[in-house]
Design brief:
The complex is a heterodimer of chains A (about 280) and B (about 170).
Chain A lengths: L1 H9 L1 H19 L14 H14 L4 H35 L7 H4 L1 E11 L5 E6 L12 E3 L4 E8 L4 E8 L4 E5 L5 E5 L7 E8 L9 E4 L11 E10 L5 E8 L8 E7 L2 H12 L1
Chain B lengths: L1 H20 L17 H4 L7 H19 L4 H20 L13 H4 L1 H23 L6 H32 L1
Helix pairs in contact in B: 1-3, 3-4, 4-6, 6-7
The chains are: A alpha+beta (about 280), B mainly alpha (about 170).
Chain lengths: ~280, ~170
Amino acid sequence: MRNLIDFLIKHHAWMFFILYVVLSCVLLFSSNPYQRSVFFGSSNRVVAQVYEVANVVSGYFGLRKANEELLMQNGELAMENLQLRRQLQRYSYAAATDSLAQDDPMLQQYDFVMARVINNSVSHLENYITLDKGSADGITPEMAVVDHRGIVGIVNVVNEHNSVAISVLNAKLHVSCKVKGTDCFGSLVWDGRSAAYAVLEEMPRHVEFVQGDTIVTSGFSAVFPDGIMVGTIHDYAKQKDDNFYAMQVKLSTDFTQLGVVRVIRNHMQDQQQLLEKEARQ
Amino acid sequence: MNITLLREIGIALLFVLLQAVVFNQINLFGIAVPMVFIYIIFRMPLSLSTAWLLTASFFLGLTVDIFSNIPGMNALACTILAFMRRPVLSLYLPHGSDYVAETPSIRGFGMWLYVRYSLTLTFLYCVLLFVIESLSLFDLPYLVMRIVGSTLLTFLLILCIDSLSQSREKRL
């Protein structure tokens, strides 16, 4: 026993070293990125506070560009609205005589909360985004985060006034996507290289597409609604096994300039997941 | 003694905040990230016992980790860095010679020794950090580019910061 104590005292630097290395490894490897402890993340109250203060300054950067883009999008939406109005008018006569007319359940399935991005990174392989809204504003884990240009990420951890979302620029996140106009889907994942590009894997070879085609979400995952803008095809190549294509997708979202985002709630999400879970059993 | 300790803790907190709010947002050419907060480990007094050095470095790394949402990554790299500090320094000192100064700095060490000391430690840190990070996605050419880019950027910034703090102390 005495020898042991002597040994410990003699080599106490090594003991401390091993202790801290083991502690770090436990933190590093035990935590699942989807269920990170709330304490060790930026949903931590103190950390979120720091980011909020910093955002008071940095929130003004890039406002002019964002404003122009919003005006553009507003114009496009106004045009689309006009077109839809005309279509509706044409169909309303038919609907008036149809006694089976009902509210469209698709439209009522989603609503959204606006939130401000108070911290964001693009420099790691696992990037996270901190938002200034939390459970008090109705945000729950697994809600979709999008901005006016396209998809941004998925909410991961929520506290009362803040939440942390996994960015699309995170090697651990896979999003089900498809080429707009087709029903063949693949899995979008980030390759860690550039904040402007991601890779759409496992696209069946028979899908017809050309460079520049639009990629949208498939709506299969119960997180993202169908048809949200992801980006355009920049380049493509056959995958190793030759039966699939891997496409390089130019992301429409500018992850270096995230300002205000929408957090989308899917009212049917629980039902869909329950159903899928039942089906797997 | 207590005032010096408080001052050092204050400086460490300032560096953690700067790292979280400013330096973590920088990603030069998509490869170089400045990890400037490790300067705190560089400048800890040489008389500090290894146990204290390791403890302080571990918590320094953990604090930075909490800000970047990846617990354990910087903590592990900082612990190993702190452990390697003394061996690296004795590598560059002539055998048997005593340490030249109480705290490592350009003024205390002289330019040439400090450059070798900080460049080696910065390189070591970047290798550790990016190898740990690449456990989740391995891409060798990108990993090497990131290590070299980040080492150079961090090293240059640390040299600037050290010469700035030095000139301020001279004026006082």
